[in-house]
């Protein structure tokens, strides 16, 4: 006998509270090679293939406001928990990935308040 479920199949995965930390502490700042931006979806797909479907909470790409519009140069990846951040950085201050043959350099996100340190 089949039972129906009231669970939402589109719900975000459960992440234990113990894994949750401040967004800045589970994020990386990344840069593109000049003139070679990568779409947020391609970045997310890359990390999900290598670290698991639920590893990324969101990807931000900074859109420059100059006129004429210039390609983006950097962004931020927020991981769903700090364990994924540690797996990506592997103890290094900066790591480089090749996403569809384009360089993506990542380092721990410092936040605006810590940028002057």
Summarize the structure.
The chain is α+β, with helices and mostly antiparallel strands. It is 21% helix and 26% strand.
Structure description:
The protein has helices at 40-51, 82-89, 111-114; strands at 27-32, 56-61, 74-79, 95-99, 102-108. The N and C termini lie far apart (62 Å). It has three helices and five strands. The model has no long low-confidence stretch (mean pLDDT 87). It is an alpha+beta fold. A five-stranded antiparallel sheet has the order 2-3-1-5-4.
Which structural category do the helix and sheet elements fall into?
Answer: alpha+beta
First and last CA, distance: 62 Å
Which spans have pLDDT < 50 for at least 5 consecutive residues? none
Helix fraction by DSSP (H/I, runs of at least 4): 10-25%
C-alpha geometry: globular
Major pleated sheet: 5 strands, antiparallel
Strand arrangement, major sheet = 2-3-1-5-4
Mean pLDDT: 87
Helix count, DSSP H or I runs of 4 or more residues: 3
Order of helices and strands: EHEEHEEH
Number of strands: 5
- Rg for CA atoms: 17 Å
Q: Percent of residues in beta strands? A: 25-35%
């Amino acid at each position: 006998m089949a039972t129906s479920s009231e669970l939402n199949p589109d719900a975000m995965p459960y992440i234990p509270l113990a894994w949750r930390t401040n967004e800045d502490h589970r994020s990386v700042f990344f840069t593109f090679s000049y003139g070679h931006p990568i779409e947020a979806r391609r970045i997310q797909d890359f990390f999900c293939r290598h670290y698991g479907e639920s590893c990324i909470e969101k990807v931000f790409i900074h859109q420059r406001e100059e006129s004429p519009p210039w390609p983006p140069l950097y962004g931020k990846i927020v991981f769903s928990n700090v364990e994924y951040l540690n797996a990506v950085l592997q103890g290094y201050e900066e790591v480089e990935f090749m996403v569809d043959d384009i360089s993506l350099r990542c380092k721990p996100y410092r936040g605006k308040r810590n940028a002057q340190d």
